[in-house]
Design brief:
The chain has 236 residues and is of the alpha/beta class. The protein is 38% helix and 15% strand. The longest helix is centred in the N-terminal third of the chain and has 19 residues.
Length: 236
């Protein structure tokens, strides 16, 4: 099935070139037409066919000296991620979209034709969708018992992304050093993931060159009385 799909896509991508052979268009015009066809083809393809899942081993507990996570575990877990290096050129950044409280596959359209795609294309960078621990297939513990959920914190999840940035070797790009020691890393997210990305830049300024926090909920509100007050006073 995948081979048939590949052959069909190849035929569709070359049609503009075949049609141009009998005309008088320049090679530049032909290349532009083929490129446009390939972009449209990629945009309309199911993202699951474009981006295979990868796993990266990450420590379950980054804070072995903190009593908050006792009893401690010394193991690792496979954190899932997806990436697209189509537009990468030397010097380009790695842009990580934090998937937040969701299975990361729900974020693949961002990599295919959304803001992550646009940013990677504009900066000659690599786009990455990074799954949050305890979501999708990125489980550090065998079950969701109350005791095992002690590792489900923003602090641990931020350390996951920082560890990834410091140690990742992208499949197919093993000849390149693309860790945060040599490459600018940017984090992007919205809502909780937006707050996450903002906190990440503050917590790890030596690893992340910058962050984009879209509608980041950076303030924790315990007492909502200030929102109830206008309703009580004015009957809103």
């Amino acid at each position: 099935m995948h081979l048939k799909m590949h052959l069909l896509n190849l035929i569709l991508a070359t049609l503009p070139l075949v049609a141009a052979l009998g005309g008088k268009r320049s090679l530049r015009e032909i290349k532009a037409e083929v490129s446009k066809s390939q972009v449209l083809q990629k945009r309309d393809t199911a993202p699951s066919l474009l981006y295979p899942a990868h796993n990266f081993s990450i420590p379950i507990d980054h804070f072995q000296n903190s009593s908050a996570y006792a009893p401690h575990i010394n193991g690792t877990f496979p954190n899932r991620y997806f990436f697209d290096a189509t537009y990468y050129k030397p010097g380009g950044p790695v842009i990580i979209l934090q998937s937040g409280e969701s299975d990361a596959t729900a974020r693949l359209p961002f990599l295919q034709k959304g803001i992550l795609h646009q940013l990677a294309r504009a900066t000659n960078g690599i786009g990455v969708v990074f799954e949050h621990r305890y979501y999708g297939t990125s489980f550090p513990t065998p079950n969701l018992s109350t005791e095992n959920l002690r590792y489900l914190t923003t602090e641990q999840a931020m350390a996951d992304e920082a560890y990834f940035a410091q140690n990742i070797v992208f499949p197919g790009l093993e000849n390149l050093t693309l860790t945060s020691n040599t490459t600018a890393y940017l984090s992007y997210g919205g809502s909780y993931a937006g707050a996450f990305s903002a906190f990440l830049r503050v917590q790890y300024p030596d690893i992340f060159w910058g962050s984009i926090s879209s509608s980041g909920v950076t303030e924790a509100i315990i007492d909502y009385s200030e929102y109830y007050y206008p309703i009580a006073k004015y009957g809103l």
